[in-house]
Amino acid sequence: MNGNIKIKNLNVHFMTKLGNVKAVDNVSLELEKGKVIGLIGETGSGKSVLGLSILRLLADNAIVSGNIYYEDMDLLSLNKKDMIGLRGKSIALVPQNPGTALNPIMRVGRQITETIISHEKVSKKEGVNRAFSIIKAFMMNRSNLKSYPFELSGGMKQRILAAIGISCNPMWLIADEPTKGLDAIVRGQVYDTFSKIKERNNAGMLLITHDLILARRLCDKIAVMYAGDILEYGLSREVLEKPKHPYTKGLVNSQPRKHLKPMLGSSPSLINPPEGCKFHPRCEGAMKKCSLEKPLLYKTVMGSEVRCFLFDKVEKRNEDI
Ligand SMILES: Nc1ncnc2c1ncn2[C@@H]1O[C@H](COP(=O)(O)OP(=O)(O)OP(=O)(O)O)[C@@H](O)[C@H]1O
Ligand SMILES: [Mg+2]
User: Fold this and answer.
1) Does the pTM exceed 0.85?
2) Most informative mutation of 13, 48, 176, 269 for ligand 1 (most atoms within 8 A of CB)
């Protein structure tokens, strides 16, 4: 029991009329308590699905296999009641879509307060006061608490979701694009508040984001996802400043503050993904082997892990062997 979240051989497929969508493909990843782990990758790569799997909040057409261990429990086989008790208090989610994630017919203040009261033995008054102090940290005021979601801008709804996420001082926060659409000042404020929670509880965070500058500022480690696979994982300065995988290099170089060089091609179908390395059709350095065999995650001398045959001379990762 070390407070880590250990994802082992996680597969998530969605049944659709066109076939099975393989959104997460045999992912193994240990999220260390007290650390911020960034999850980056192009749209549709499986980031949200991976985050939602931890809390078992996937759509009904999902078929899930593997294990997600937390505090001696396998979250994937936990009974419903225990899972509900864990959500919000031990592991909380700031969901990606502020437009749909809030209850449209309940004032937002009540939505924060009810989250607090449902998990902690506090009076209604204390719940309201706590809700107020949280939203103050997100640069909102008491009158905002009285609003219904439709009365608030997208950015304000985003901040209410962040407030609900941290309202019970969770040990883990899964934050899915928590600052999308916010201006730079508010964005900084949201992250400062998250950082305080992290310091106070020694909590951990899985931060799903497209913003590599913020990821570099906030994350201890980064996992790079492509078509359901983790292609690179390591310390954030290693991954973002000295990317190894050709895909990570492409992502970094397409950022506005870097070369703004768009990556060639587009993400593959997740129903019929390419054989071998799923990135090989877009990779400038692809070899014959890359279309035939899926590379393992290889450990580099700097300690990061890269799923690419260019790095197969070093060490193989235990889980994959
Ligand atoms: N219920 C579902 N049924 C079928 N396919 C789904 C379902 N939910 C997600 N998917 C598919 O799974 C894949 C991964 O989706 P996911 O939402 O995790 O992407 P993402 O990396 O979070 O992208 P973004 O950066 O745009 O948020 C996508 O192809 C998506 O269409
Ligand atoms: Mg997403």
Assistant:
1) yes
2) 48
